[in-house]
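Input sequence (193 aa), recorded before submission:
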Amino acid sequence: MASPSPTTELAHEAAQTVTATGGLGMLGINLKIFIAQLFNFVLVLLVLWKWVYRPLVKLLDARTARIEKSMKQADEIEKRMAGLEEEQARVIAQAKSEAAVMLEQARESAEQRKKELLEGAKGEVQKVIAQGKEQLKAEKQNMVREAKTELVELAVEAARKILQESVNEKKSKQLAEEAIETLSSKASVSSRT
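Predicted structure, token format:
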């Protein structure tokens, strides 16, 4: 027989390899190496799953939870701030209304106090006027008393003169009239002052 051609030899070797490796050999894959690499891949995958992926997922979940918690807290803080702003506005409005009421009460109190002071001052003026009138009345009575005393003294003096001169009836009437006119003029001068 003649020697086979190189292509035939190659095809024959390829057929032997395919039968020995089962079809993967055609692709250039060695089954033993492939199984070893598959085992190593699964082993590395399990190691990474247990010691890297799970802790990383837990870390990411914890971080997500913290971020969500922070967001909720931020929302609550915003709500509180809005509530505090409303409360502050309400308190300021209430303080303004209370201040207005207090101011009005102070005005009313001041007006009442002013009226009381005016009434007190009027009362004091009336007391002073009454005291002045009483004092004038007392002075008038005193002056009338003094006038009466002077009148009595003049009457006594006139009587003494009448008795000393032993005058007639005409003369005594004249002296008495002069004494009365003198007293009347003194009394009118006293009442004018």
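Checked by second reader. The longest helix spans residues 31-165.
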